[in-house]
Structures are given as C-alpha cells and as structure tokens.
Specification:
- The protein is α/β, with parallel strands linked by helices and about 525 residues long.
- It has two domains: about 50-265 and about 480-485, Aldehyde Dehydrogenase, Chain A, domain 1; about 270-465, Aldehyde Dehydrogenase, Chain A, domain 2, CATH 3.40.309.
- It is built from 19 helices and 20 strands.
- The chain has helices spanning about 15-25, 55-75, 80-95, 95-105, 110-135, 170-175, 180-185, 195-210, 225-235, 245-255, 280-290, 310-325, 345-360, 390-395, 410-415, 435-440, 455-460, 480-485, 505-525, and strands at about 35, 40, 45, 50, 140, 150-155, 160-165, 185-190, 215-220, 235-240, 260-265, 270-275, 300-305, 360-365, 380-385, 400-405, 425-430, 445-450, 470-475, 485-495.
- The protein has a seven-stranded mixed β-sheet, sandwiched between helices.
- Helix 3 (about 80-95) packs antiparallel against helix 5 (about 110-135), helix 4 packs antiparallel against helix 8 and helix 11 (about 280-290) packs across helix 12.
- The longest helix is centred in the first third of the chain and has 25 residues, at about 110-135.
- The structure holds nicotinamide-adenine-dinucleotide.
- Nicotinamide-adenine-dinucleotide (NAD) binds near residues 164, 229, 249, 266 and 398.
- Keywords: Oxidoreductase.
- InterPro entries: Ald_DH/histidinol_DH, Ald_DH_C, Ald_DH_CS_GLU, Ald_DH_N, Aldehyde_DH_dom, Aldehyde_DH_Superfamily.
- It holds the Pfam family Aldedh.
- This is Succinate-semialdehyde dehydrogenase.
- One of its GO terms (molecular function) is succinate-semialdehyde dehydrogenase (NAD+) activity.
Length: about 525
C-alpha cells in the first residue's frame, strides 16, 4: 500500500504488521479501501504511511452497522460500559509511549504537549466512568397533580453520535467526546482528521482490546467536505470540533435534518495582566499558554492585554521567557516547542506576521520561519503596535504568535478582552484573586483562568468547557458533556386514569376544583 519514500521519523515499533492492525479499523467494506491518502510528517515534510479512504457509501454502511450495535450496547448496565472505559484508561496509561510517538509524528508537537493529551483523556475517562451514572440518573420531579400522579425525567441515548475533530489534539479531541457518548449508551461514527488518522486508529484498536464490541465505534477517513458531510447526514447528533467557518457549515447541514449539534470552535483568546500582577509569573503563564503546541490550541492565548503600570516589567519578563523556549523536533522530550503541523499552517502563520509587520507592527521576538530546524518550524513570536487593520488583530492565527496591547485600568482591559466575535477562553493574572474573579464575570468567554494561562479550566473536567459567540455552542466536560448525548424523556403516570373532567360531569366543576387547588397551593406558599 505504501509508495515512495516515507518519513524518517517513523516509530520503530510501527512495523508492517502493527500498521495493518491499525488500518483494519477503517470502515471501508463498500469501497474495499482501494483509494488511499498519505499525510505528510511535519518533521521532514515526507509522507508518513497510506491509510484507506472511505467513500460516502462506506460512511452509510458504517452508520448502519453502528446502529445495529447500539441497542445491545445501550442494553448493558452503566457499570459494564464503564468497565470498558476504565480498561481503556489503564491500557492508555500503560502504552502511552506508542501514542506519544504517533502524535508527535503526525502533528510535530513537543512530547510534553502530546503527553498532556494522554493526561486529559485519562482524566476524562476516569471522571465519566465514575460520575457519569449520577449525571444520567433518572430524576423524580414534582408531578402535575400531587398525590394523583407522579413523574420522572429519563435520559435516553441519542442513537448514533457523529464525532468530527481536527488534527491539533487528535487523541484528546478524537476520543475525549467519544467516551461520554459511549457511556450514555450511544454508538459512535467518528471521522479521523486527514493529518492524524494513525493516532485515532491506535485509540480504536486499544478500545477493542479494552472490550468494546466490534461495531459500536466506527472510524471513517477522507476529506472533510465529502466524508464529514456524509457523517452529518448519517447520525442522530453531531459533536464537531474545528474552525468557526466549518462549524457554521456543519450546523446548517445538521439543521436541515433537525439533529442536535455541539460545536467547539475557534478562539482569539485574551490574557489580562492587571496592574498588581507579578510580572514573572504572568510571563511564565503567557509563554506556556501562547506557545504550547506551537500555538495550535483552541484555548491558547493570542492577545495579551497589559496594564500600563506593569507593561515594561511584564514585557521584559515575557521576552526573557520566550527566548528560553527550545524550538526543535524529534521523538522524545528534548524540546519545548515543535514545528507547525502542516505547510498550510506555516503559510497562514507567516502571512499573518508579514501582514502585521507591513502595516506597522513591531517584532519584539521571533517573527520568522526556521527551515534550518525543520521545514515547518516557526519561531515563538511577540508583536507590539498591533492595530485593527491587521489580519491577526482579531482573527485567529492558530500559531505561536502573540500581540501585546497596552491599556489603563480594569474596565479598559475587559473592554479589550471582549473585542471581536470569539469567546472561548480567557485569563487574568493578578495578586488579588478576588478582583480577578470579579472581572471574569464581565469577560465574554466560556472559561476564565486566574493566574494560569489556558490549561487550568480545561483540566477541571467536572466543569463545562465550551465557547460563546463565534466560539461555539454546547459544552464538553461535566454534566453537560454527557447529557448532550441523550434525549430527555418525561414519563408521567396517573394513578386514576386520564386527568380531566370525569365522564358526565360538567366542565365547570372540574375548573372550580382546579382553581381551588391553584389558590390553596399559593396560600400554602407552594410553587
Ligand atoms: P477545520 O474546521 O478545517 O476541520 C476540522 C474537521 O472538520 C476536520 O476533521 C475536517 O476534515 C472536517 N471538515 C472540514 N470540512 C468539513 C465539512 N464541510 N463537513 C464536515 N466536516 C468537515 O479545522 P482545522 O483548521 O483543521 O482545525 C483548527 C480549528 O479548530 C481552529 O479554528 C481551532 O481553534 C479549532 N479548535 C477548536 C477547539 C475547541 O474545543 N473549541 C479545539 C481544537 C481546535
């Protein structure tokens, strides 16, 4: 199946036999998997390995198999499903080195940031295995007619859930939403991103080893507009993570079928440095939040809003911390920042910086590609004097590029943070955490970190995570992160038959009875 030269960074354990054991999970029975796609490895811009590509007919037949498998899966107890997830958790932790290699090979990110995916996914798996049952438990509610009726709210699986996720966190985003979807009793039709199919297939194989029945999780591959659209057309709920533009297109398509969507989209996330902030601490938090994953992270920081009182001290600390970042590449823990994932990413980041500089931005650090390090390597970059006419001012760069903005006072900082249409994540650095928390309420963002740049809120998996404005709809994590994969059903039971005027009695006597009940309840202070 492989043709031509392959990337020299291919992990040694990925033998032909292991590769075949991963490829077998691509759902291609209709087409026979004759067409293939080969991603390009960011470390050397050479092909990785070919993966079969699905047709829309493959997607349809995968959905049909998932549908058949869903009922028996939902028929198991929550505990039995959780056992599978907990075994997956244990295997993931034990075998992490393999998936770290794959994530690095397919995305180029530093190994520490690949490991953060393992940490987050393991945490999500454990959380929902332990707490999901209570999030979905039947709920007894106050009935319509006290004593004569009773009612419960149930949570039923949607059926087949579609999951479409991008390449930037192929393990966490590809599997982190799948786990609550499965635990809620759904089958899943997941589309692997074209850049990172091996990471998702590795997770699929591991889930099989953990005991997931064969057809409950189908993996399809292929380009977004064709195969992604076929997924939207085949499922009962769609969980999409990606850009705002694609999210909007996906939501429109889903709307035509009247299926629910959760959309985790882009950001242009601000970090506020208050006048009382410790400049060194704020600089450390900024560097981690801006340059981790080479800035290819939905919650990463691209705008730093600094109070004039601390601007010079913070900028000096930021530049020192930035110059300490080791840009490099290779499997292993030797570097802080890896290259960008694709040529398209390199071109977009370069174009944003070139545009900003041409319009008057000042480069305080970085500002150029490093082909001497790797074909897609780009320096961590800090810009000042960024103005509204620059593409990167309010548009997502999705790269290691920070813009500094100087303001005076909290009100101006909040106004600057709330500029633009995104609202995913934000951060505030301050010695006065109460003041920072009070500011959080006024910042339009799905999550606000205080004295941390980006990871703290997303790592708090008991709390919801998601976007406002152009950053999305719906939430992952916490109770909402699993309930979105269910339909609420109300079961109301009458002890005496249909509620209404008894046969042969005038309607007025029933109305009088009802009015007496309304008045009595009001007098008793009930409802
Ligand atoms: P993208 O929207 O181009 O692609 C995302 C996924 O959608 C890919 O798997 C792609 O194949 C698929 N796709 C493309 N067109 C489609 C279509 N018409 N129908 C269905 N599926 C389609 O995004 P990208 O550039 O690959 O990823 C980066 C973006 O994702 C950034 O904007 C980033 O902020 C965002 N993101 C958001 C979150 C979050 O949780 N909010 C997390 C990670 C990334």
């Amino acid at each position: 199946m492989d043709t031509g030269p392959v990337s020299a960074h291919r992990p040694a354990w990925l033998t032909g036999a292991r590769l075949a054991s991963l490829r077998r999970w691509v759902a291609v029975p209709a087409s026979g998997g004759k067409t293939t796609h080969t991603p390009i490895a960011p470390y050397d811009a050479l092909p990785t390995v070919a993966v079969p590509v699905c047709t829309p007919e493959d997607v349809e037949s995968a959905a049909a198999r998932a549908r058949t498998a869903q009922e028996p899966w939902a028929g198991l107890s929550y505990g039995a499903r959780a056992e599978v997830v907990l075994r997956f958790h244990d295997l993931l932790v034990a075998r992490q080195d393999e998936v770290l290699d794959l994530i690095q090979w397919e995305t180029g990110k530093a190994r520490l940031h690949a490991w953060q995916e393992v940490l987050l996914l393991g945490t999500v798996a454990r959380h929902y295995a332990r707490h999901g049952r209570s999030y979905l438990a039947d709920r007894t509610v106050r009935p319509a007619v006290p004593l004569l009726t009773r009612a419960r709210e149930l949570r039923l699986p949607k059926g087949v859930v579609g999951i479409i996720a991008p390449w930037n966190h192929p393990l966490y985003l590809g599997v982190g939403d799948l786990i609550p979807a499965l635990l809620a009793g759904n089958a899943v039709l997941g589309k692997a991103d074209g850049q990172t199919p091996l990471t998702l297939l590795w997770a699929r194989a591991l889930m099989a080893e953990a005991g997931l029945p064969e057809n409950v999780w189908q993996v399809v591959t292929g380009d977004g507009p064709t195969i992604g659209s076929a997924v939207v057309d085949a499922v009962d709920h769609l969980c999409f993570t990606g850009s705002t533009a694609t999210g909007r297109a996906v939501a429109e398509r889903a709307a035509r079928r009247l299926i629910g969507v959760s959309l985790e989209l882009g950001g242009k996330n601000p970090l506020i440095v208050r006048a009382d902030a410790d400049p060194d601490l704020a600089a450390r938090g900024t560097v981690e939040a801006a340059f981790a994953n080479s800035g290819q992270m939905c919650v990463h920081i691209e705008r730093v809003i600094v109070d004039a009182a601390v601007y010079d001290a913070f900028t000096a600390a930021l530049l020192a911390a930035t110059s300490g970042q080791r840009l490099g590449q290779g499997l292993g823990y030797g570097y802080d920042i890896g290259p960008l994932a694709t040529r398209a990413q390199l071109e977009k980041v370069g174009a944003h910086v070139t545009d900003a500089v041409a319009k008057g931005a000042t480069v305080l650090a970085g500002g150029r590609a490093r082909p001497d390090i790797g074909p897609y390597a780009y320096q961590p970059t800090v810009l000042a004097d960024v103005t509204d006419d620059m593409d990167l001012c309010l548009g997502e760069t999705f790269g290691p590029v920070l813009a500094l903005h100087r303001v005076s006072g909290d009100a101006a900082a909040i106004a600057a943070a709330n500029r633009g249409r995104h609202g995913l994540s934000a951060a505030v650095f301050s010695r006065d955490t109460a003041a920072a928390e009070a500011m959080a309420r006024r910042i339009r963002a799905g999550a606000v970190n205080v004295n941390d740049g980006a990871g703290l809120a997303i790592g708090t998996v008991e709390a919801p995570m998601g976007g406002r404005g152009d950053s999305g709809l719906g939430r992952r994590h916490g109770p909402e992160g699993i309930r979105r994969f269910t339909d609420a059903q109300t079961v109301a039971v009458s002890r005496l038959g249909p509620i209404g005027p008894p046969p042969g009695r005038p309607a007025e006597s029933f109305v009088n009875l009802g009015n007496r009940q309304l008045r009595l309840l009001r007098r008793l202070g009930i409802r």
